[in-house]
C-alpha cells in the first residue's frame, strides 16, 4: 500500500496530473480574498486555509468537493478534528498502556469504533459513487487508482477495501498539517517585516504583477521555499513522532527491549541550540544553500536534525506536495495583498489540538489588494 501511495498516488507523475485541480482551488481561494478586500472584511486565515486544503485534498482523492452549503464540509472537518483528538489519546495510551489498560480502554475502543464507523459511512458513499459513475472527463483521482488496483487480480500486492479506507483516514492528516503550516508561516511573516520585504521582492521579480503565482514558479523562488522550511522547523504541525522497536537492540550503551515504545520530540530537536544557530529566531536564510559543494553536506546533516515530515519508512509521503501547496498559497497571500491586523504583532502562543501543534488564537487580517492579475474564467466565477 505504501509503495502504491509513494509511486502512483503521490509521486511526481500523479502530482503533475492533479496540478490543474490545485490551480483551480487556489484561484478560487484568491477570488475569495479579493472579494473580502473589496468589502473591507477580515479573513480568518486558519479557517480559510483549512477550507482550501480540504477542497484540494477531496478533489485530488475523490474527485469532489465537500460542499459548504449542505454542511458536508463542516461534517468532514468535524471528523478530521475528532480523528486527530483520538490519535492524541491513542498516543498517550501507547505511552502509558499498562496504567490505562486497567481503567478506560473499553471506553476508548467504543470511541474509536464510533469515529471509524462515521469515516466508513462517508467513504462508503464515495466508493459506491465512484463504482457507479467513474469520472469521465476529470481524469483519474486517487480513488479511481485505488479501485483499479483493488480490482486487478494480477496485482503484485493485493489491496483490500479496508486498505482503501485506511488510506483516506491517513489523508485526513494532510489537511490540518498543511493548513496549520500556512497559518504559522503567515504569522511569522507578519511579525518579521524584513522577511516580508525580501519575499515580495522575489515574487515581484520572478512572477511579476500581471499574473498569479503558480506551482511551477516554486522552483524559481528559493526565498519562498526557505520561508516554508523555516516555518516547519519552528512550528512542526506534528511535534511528536511515535515508533515501536520491532527487535531488541542496544543504543549508546542502553539495552532496548523488543516492543519498546519511543516518541521522538522533533519540536525540541529543531530548536536545539547545539544543532541550530539562534534556534528561536525566524531566519529563512539558514535554508539558502551557501555554495554548491556545501549543499550535499548540508542535506546529509539536515536528515538528522530537520524532521517536520518524520523520517524513514513511516516518513510522510506527501512532503513534496505539502511544500508545493503551502508555498503557492503563501505566495498568493503575500504577492496579492497587503494586510491589516489588530495590533502590531501576532500572538504566537501555541496549543495542541489533537496531535497537531497550532496557534492558540485565531489569526485574522483584512486584505488590501496590491494588484489584480489576469485570471482564468473559472476563477472569476468564484469572485
Ligand atoms: C506541511 C504539510 C505536512 C506535514 C508537516 C506532514 C507531516 C507528517 C508527519 C510528521 C508524519 C508522520 C511521519 C513519521 O511517523 O515519520 C506524516 C505522515 C503522513 N503524511 Fe504527512 N505531512 C504533510 C502533508 C501531507 C500531505 C500533503 C499528504 C498527502 C496528500 C500527507 C500524507 C501523509 C501520510 C499518508 C502519512 C502516513 C505515512 C505512514 O504512516 O506510512 N502528508 N506527515
TrEMBL record:
InterPro entries, alphabetized: Cyt_P450, Cyt_P450_CS, Cyt_P450_E_grp-I, Cyt_P450_sf, Plant_metabolite_P450s
Xref: Pfam families: p450
Membrane topology: Single-pass membrane protein
Gene: BnaC05g31940D
Compartment(s) where it occurs, according to its Swiss-Prot or TrEMBL record: Membrane
Annotated transmembrane regions: none
Protein name: BnaC05g31940D protein
GO molecular function, one term: oxidoreductase activity, acting on paired donors, with incorporation or reduction of molecular oxygen, NAD(P)H as one donor, and incorporation of one atom of oxygen
KW Thylakoid (keyword) present: no
PANTHER family per the UniProt record, alphabetical: CYTOCHROME P450 705A22, FLAVONOID 3'-MONOOXYGENASE-RELATED
Keywords attached to this entry: Heme, Iron, Membrane, Metal-binding, Monooxygenase, Oxidoreductase, Transmembrane, Transmembrane helix
Family, as annotated: Belongs to the cytochrome P450 family.
Amino-acid positions noted as binding heme in the UniProt annotation, renumbered to this chain: 316
Cellular component terms per the entry's GO annotation: membrane
Cofactor: heme
Amino acid at each position: 500500500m505504501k509503495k502504491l501511495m509513494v509511486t502512483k498516488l503521490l509521486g511526481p507523475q500523479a502530482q503533475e496530473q492533479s496540478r490543474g485541480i490545485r490551480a483551480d482551488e487556489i484561484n478560487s481561494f484568491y477570488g475569495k480574498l479579493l472579494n473580502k478586500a473589496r468589502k473591507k472584511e477580515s479573513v480568518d486565515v486558519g479557517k480559510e486555509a483549512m477550507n482550501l486544503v480540504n477542497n484540494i485534498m477531496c478533489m485530488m482523492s475523490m474527485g469532489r468537493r465537500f460542499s459548504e452549503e449542505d454542511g458536508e464540509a463542516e461534517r468532514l472537518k468535524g471528523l478530521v478534528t475528532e480523528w486527530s483528538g483520538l490519535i492524541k489519546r491513542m498516543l498517550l495510551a501507547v505511552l502509558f498502556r499498562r496504567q490505562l489498560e486497567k481503567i478506560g480502554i473499553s471506553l476508548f475502543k467504543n470511541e474509536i469504533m464510533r469515529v471509524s464507523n462515521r469515516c466508513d459511512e462517508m467513504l462508503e458513499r464515495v466508493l459506491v459513487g465512484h463504482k457507479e459513475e467513474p469520472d469521465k472527463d476529470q481524469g483519474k483521482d486517487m480513488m479511481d487508482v485505488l479501485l483499479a488496483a483493488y480490482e486487478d487480480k494480477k496485482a503484485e500486492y493485493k489491496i483490500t477495501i479496508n486498505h482503501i479506507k485506511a488510506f483516506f483516514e491517513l489523508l485526513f492528516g494532510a489537511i490540518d498539517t498543511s493548513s496549520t503550516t500556512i497559518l504559522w508561516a503567515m504569522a511569522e511573516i507578519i511579525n518579521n517585516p524584513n522577511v516580508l520585504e525580501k519575499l515580495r521582492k522575489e515574487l515581484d521579480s520572478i512572477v511579476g504583477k500581471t499574473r498569479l503565482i503558480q506551482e511551477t514558479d516554486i522552483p524559481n523562488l528559493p526565498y519562498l521555499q526557505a520561508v516554508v522550511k523555516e516555518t516547519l522547523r519552528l512550528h512542526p504541525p506534528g511535534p511528536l513522532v511515535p515508533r515501536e522497536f520491532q527487535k531488541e537492540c542496544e543504543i549508546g550503551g542502553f539495552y532496548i527491549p523488543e516492543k519498546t515504545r519511543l516518541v521522538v520530540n522533533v519540536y525540541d530537536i529543531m530548536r536545539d541550540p547545539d544543532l541550530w544557530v539562534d534556534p528561536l529566531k525566524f531566519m529563512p536564510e539558514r535554508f539558502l544553500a551557501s555554495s554548491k559543494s556545501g549543499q550535499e553536506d548540508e542535506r546529509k546533516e539536515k536528515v538528522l536534525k530537520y524532521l517536520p515530515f518524520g523520517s524513514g519508512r513511516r516518513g510522510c509521503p506527501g512532503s513534496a506536495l505539502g511544500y508545493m501547496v503551502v508555498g503557492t498559497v503563501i505566495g498568493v497571500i503575500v504577492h496579492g495583498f497587503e494586510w491589516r491586523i489588530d495590533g502590531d504583532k501576532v500572538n504566537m502562543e501555541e496549543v495542541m489540538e489533537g496531535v497537531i501543534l497550532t496557534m492558540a488564537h485565531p489569526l485574522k487580517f483584512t486584505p488590501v489588494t496590491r494588484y489584480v492579475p489576469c485570471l482564468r474564467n473559472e476563477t472569476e466565477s468564484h469572485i
